[in-house]
Structure formats: C-alpha cells, structure tokens
UniProtKB/TrEMBL annotation:
Residues 1-22 form the signal peptide. This is Cytochrome P460 domain-containing protein. It comes from Motilimonas pumila. The keyword Signal applies. Keywords: Signal. It comes from the Bacteria.
Length: 171
C-alpha cells in the first residue's frame, strides 16, 4: 500500500484549516487523457437562468464557475482512473491514489480528486500539469473540499453525482 506521510500531513492541514493552503493537495495524474470518459456535462455561462427547482448544489456550482471562458461556459468531461472504475460505480470507498478528473475543455482546467487514507483531496491543474489553484478562489483545494463536504448527499466520498445538464433534461 502506498503511503506518503508528507501528503497525509498536507491533507490533514487542508481539512483542519483550509485557509492555510491555496495550493493543490491532490497530485497531477500523468496519463489521465487515456482514462475512460464516464460523464459529460457543462460549466454553464454566467447568464444562465436555472429552473426554479434546481438543486442548491447546481446553483452553487454554476455561481462558482461562471467566470470560466470569460463567462461563456465550457464543456466538462469527467474521466475516471481505470483502476477505480468499479469503486466509482458505487462512489467508494476508494483506494489511495488519483481517482477522477473533470476537464473544462475550453479553459483547459483539470480538477483532480485523489484519495488518501480513504479521504478525498483536491487539486487544480492546467493541461501541462502546472498547479493553477491560485488562479481563482474556486480552484483552491480548500474551496473544493468545502463544497464537496457541504453536499455529501451528492458528493459521496468526494465524487459528485449530479451533472449540471441533468437540470435541463427534466424540462
């Protein structure tokens, strides 16, 4: 079993005092481009009008990421580590290591969810693997943790289940 005491310490600090760390905690998963696509969604444009019965999770997600692509939105692709596909189908529990990536296709943002000692940790990178968490507050690991933790009914074990496009499929 892989265990890195430095990462565990960083993860604990991020969970206990999220304001301490703005950098990504999850590592950039080399080779994510070959992981299977499990879901496609959308970072919606800033001027999106959501249906009145839209979940608070989707409302908060749209508000948090309405800046992407200068407010024009972007397709979002979700890929899962092939070693964790079966775990993803039941939303865990997850083994250690990179679990899932969400890619904002136009902006080139790669959100990473990794698991360490059963806990989700997060990171934000560009396509070159450079940490971009300081580019915007909604890309910081603490922001990811706070939102995923607040919506545990949707973000089970750190992976979220309600695609934003599902809001429009109901109409």
């Amino acid at each position: 079993m892989w265990f890195n005491p430095i990462k565990v310490g960083i993860a604990v600090l991020a969970l206990v005092s999220p304001s301490i760390l703005a950098e990504s905690v999850a590592s950039y998963p080399v080779g994510w481009e070959s992981w299977p696509v499990v879901k496609e969604s959308q970072n919606l444009p800033a001027d999106t009008v959501l249906p009145p019965d839209t979940s608070l999770f989707i409302q908060e997600s749209v508000k948090a990421y309405d800046w992407i692509n200068n407010g024009l939105g972007s397709p979002l692709t979700i890929r899962v580590n092939p070693e964790k596909l079966e775990q993803y189908k039941t939303h865990g529990p997850y083994t250690d290591g990179p679990t899932v990536v969400a890619i904002s296709e136009v902006q080139g943002i790669i959100w990473v969810t990794e698991h360490l000692s059963g806990l989700p940790i997060y990171g934000s990178y560009n396509r070159k693997g450079e940490d971009i968490s300081s580019m915007h507050p909604s890309l910081e690991a603490s922001f990811c943790h706070q939102c995923h933790d607040a919506y545990k009914d949707i973000c089970i074990n750190g992976t979220c289940t309600e695609p934003v496009l599902g809001v429009y499929e109901k109409q």
